[in-house]
Write a structure and sequence with these properties.
Helices cover 58% and strands 10% of the residues. With 118 residues, the chain is mainly alpha-helical. The strands form two sheets. A two-stranded antiparallel sheet has the order 1-2.
Length: 118
């Protein structure tokens, strides 16, 4: 299938698909006209990439661990490949720290709009 067809099937822009290719996440074949030709399996691969991005993983991390991605009855999940657990734990710690900072900012904001109790 051509890039426009894959984009329509996955809901991902052609620009994003080209970016995934540049980052080594997709490797479409080329036909005699030079057009990208995607396989049916690329629909699943794009879903895996999107799921990993939405979980906060960057494309360089995804490139290292995309072969660990599996798609089953309940969606995309990652088998714990070597070193993956440590990276996911580090990401979770960063997210926890960001959430704590947001809660602190929210508390300071609330303090600005509410007069102190006497």
């Amino acid at each position: 299938m051509l890039i426009s067809e894959l984009a329509e099937l996955t809901g991902v822009s052609a620009r994003a698909l080209r970016h995934y290719e540049e980052r080594g996440l997709l490797a479409p074949a080329r036909n005699s006209n030079g057009y990208r030709e995607y396989a049916e399996s690329d629909v699943t691969r794009v879903a895996q990439i999107r799921t990993m991005i939405s979980a906060g993983l960057g494309t360089s991390t995804i490139q290292r661990y995309l072969d660990c991605a599996r798609t089953g009855d309940h969606g995309t999940f990652l088998e714990m490949c070597p070193d993956l657990r440590a990276e996911l734990d580090a990401l979770a710690r960063r997210l926890d720290a960001e959430q704590a900072e947001l809660r602190a900012k929210r508390s300071r904001l609330d303090g600005l709009v509410s007069p102190p109790l006497r």
